[in-house]
Amino acid sequence: MRVESLKYxxxxxxxxxxxxxxxxxxxxxxxxxxxxxxxxRELGTTLFKRAGKRVCLTEAGxxxxxxxxxxxxxxxxLTEGMRKHSPEGGSxxxxxxxxxxxxxxxxxxxxxxxxxxxxxxxxxLVEKNFPDIVENIVQAHExxxxxxMVVVPDSALDALRENPAIVFVPLFNSSIMLMGxxxxxxxxxxxxFIDEIVSLPIAYYSEPVLDTxxxxxFTGRSFQNIIMHASNIELMNEYVQTGQAVTFSDSFxxxxxxxxxxxxxxxxxxxxxxxxxxxxxxxxxxxxxxxAAYVKRFKNCIDTVCKSYLTRHPLSS
Length: 317
Fold this sequence. Notes:
Blueprint (H helix, E strand, L loop, with lengths): L2 H13 L2 H8 L3 H15 L4 E4 L2 E4 L1 H25 L12 E4 L1 H10 L1 H6 L6 E4 L2 H10 L7 E7 H8 L4 E15 L13 H4 L4 E4 L2 H10 L8 E5 L2 H9 L5 E4 H7 L7 E4 L5 E9 L6 H17 L1 H6 L5
Parallel strand pairs: 3-4, 3-5, 7-8
Antiparallel strand pairs: 1-2, 5-11, 6-9, 6-10, 6-11
Helix pairs in contact: 1-2, 1-3, 1-4, 2-11
């Protein structure tokens, strides 16, 4: 029995919906359904039943909740207890990575399987905003993270590259896209123009870099129907999934999850601003061997797994 299947089970139980759980977990709804079907076959019982548009737990499902929670907690204690005996000497030698929200809450989930295959998810993520990351790098604080993954609007990219205190290793670039369901976006739609979007009902995540990229895209224009602009991603997802609003995604996220999320549509925006994602570290503070190896391995993962994406969206020189 896979502990991951139990985690999926608990997320569905809490969300009351396979589609919402899939969105929260950043996995495909089809893959989530197959995982639960396999779990039900293994346990010899049905765990969920339909209740209108939602699902609810069967009696067996209700009994499994506490057992699943105990199992997951035991697995966590086992992993932590054995980590000190590993050849790498435990978590004290694990790479610490300062990461902006797009990386910490998105990329490490969108590419979960691929990153695990390259042993890239065994990392201590410390979420920070861009100004704090730059300050730590420039001032080279002894107790700060030595390596960061940053999201940089292309309007600010030259300034970062020209900063002699910072080394920037680009991984990929991406452009803003519109995301929604068939209730607001036609599946036949090839692209949207900026003047069309400003009148649509919009719910989008409040994050400084995203706000900057959107500002670069919608220069001189204001959204006329903002449903939500906050950090409550669950509520934003609810608005989008139920067709009450559209939101903003990006071409890289569409590449990693678009084909699996059949209920979501990703449409390019004509003239959309772009941003770059990559590693940053202090020029005067060489990376530790483990961190340097991590950067090399991560770049190899992106270059290999995302080769077709990089062909269509080549890194700017």
